[in-house]
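The data are quoted verbatim for reference:
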Amino acid sequence: EGTGDPGQITTVQSYCLAYSQNFPTPAPQSRGGKACMPCVTEEDCGNGNAFTAPDPSITWCTSPVDLACVLSDEAALTDVPAFHFNLRAAPSSQIQRTDILRIFLHPLTQWDIETCTVVWNGEDGCPGACNDPTCSVEAVIGGEPTGVGPDYPVNIMKIDMPGTMGGAITSEAIGMLKVGSTNFPPGGFL
């Protein structure tokens, strides 16, 4: 899931390419295909099977996720998060309902995200009963993207904590979030 212990190398999740009318395989999920689904091998995406070797001239299982998957409704990419992280407040501080968190994605010049979705990581992700936070994107230079130039890299996830949280996140009570429906830098990230 793109996470691991500090100092350890972790494998980033790979995904099958998105469906395209110009390149109709891998077929979309609605037709029994694997487009935008997690994969480990080419066979997971339909390039080869138990009886036929994968065609070496094509690559359907790729990382980072195909941008067309992020922008489509093909797959629920929050079900397979791009990465997850823990939230912990500084000593004698709290993260509470309606707070705004900004996650700066480094290296700043490599990230250019289109969208993001954040959900709690299971029942223990939020202290108490909580609604899901919302996620929007911003740029370090230029602020919120407007679609009007100049075009700066979008490299901040702005997370708005929900109005309903059963408790605050403190230095002792940790929150756990999953991030999905976002694209990675072309060179990957650690």
Notes: Residues 67-71 form the longest helix (5 residues).
